[in-house]
Amino acid sequence: MSHCPHCPLYPIVTFAVTLAVSPLAELGDVLEVTANASSHNGVTGTRGHRATIPVKVGVTVVVASSPDSTKFITISKGEDRANVTHRYQVKLLGGRDT
């Protein structure tokens, strides 16, 4: 049963992740990413997910977030959906050794 009577039983949330990697860092064969989510509405515990992503090509990428990206959302009773927008500028600066 959901912790919240007006929230879906298993809401789906998709996160886009931005990583800052030093140009001097030694890249391996895989990138391990862990995402955790928590709530401030009295729900105990933290939900998380871990993924391993293969590194195919080493590149130098600059990603800058836009100030008009969504910072947080509040879901109220009767709402079954909330929109979250994140905008980024991505620049590919070139390849690098892996």
Protein topology:
Layout: E1 30-37, E2 47-54, E3 59-65, E4 88-95
Antiparallel strand pairs: 1-2, 3-4
What can you see in these coordinates?
Residues 1-20 form the signal peptide. Keywords: Signal. The chain is mostly beta strands. It has a domain at 30-93. The chain has strands at 30-37, 47-54, 59-65, 88-95. The strands form two sheets. The protein has a two-stranded antiparallel sheet. The protein has a two-stranded antiparallel sheet with strand order 3-4. The radius of gyration is 18 Å and the shape is extended. The N and C termini lie far apart (46 Å). 0% of the residues are buried.
Keywords:
two-stranded antiparallel ribbon, signal, 98 residues, single chain, mainly beta, 0% helix
Mean pLDDT: 68
Adjacency order of strands in the biggest sheet: 1-2
Radius of gyration: 18 Å
Number of helices: 0
Distance between the termini: 46 Å
Q: What's the main sheet like?
A: 2 strands, antiparallel
* Percentage of residues in strands: 25-35%
Assembly type of the chains comes to single chain
Q: List SSEs in N-to-C order.
A: EEEE
Low-confidence stretches: none
Helical percentage: under 10%
DSSP summary, beta strand count? 4
Judged by helices, strands and strand pairing, the structural class is mainly beta
Shape designation: extended
Keywords: Signal
